[in-house]
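User: Um, any thoughts?
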Amino acid sequence: MLQTFAERLARAHPGYFTAAYLGAFGAQVLAMTNPVLPTLYGLALAGPFVLICLWAWAIYNVCTPRPKAVAVAGIFASAPLLVLVAGVAGWSTNNSPTALMIFGLLFLTLWLSASSLEDRDQSNGRGALGPKLLTTLLLYFGVVGIWVLHPRIARIAGPPPPVPRVR
């Protein structure tokens, strides 16, 4: 079931991700400019991180053998959870240790995803450092990166399963 969900998420049209991502950023701006409950503030802060890390998780799951993919799945939830906790607790995320930890965890998740994508895309199974860094940057700037990376991800994920005909 996890692999099927990851494949569907990785194969989804980039427009869906772009719309959800822009909506999450809009919610974040609204939460930052209006007085809201701390829980809603934390959820709004975590929204874009959830989308980026979920997309990175789907790419990692599609490009990595199943036992290894399941073993590190929790890493992909760590950055959004830390953002949620920071938002609810009222911790500063501007030039603080919390912000450094969030960025480090986010970079780790995006690096794992980009590394698995590049390794799977290369014929010898070992991608070079330069393309991995470029792919990491494309994953970080998700609104642009999804449009650039989607053809490669869809090719690696394979064709979608046939739709059963209803008679």
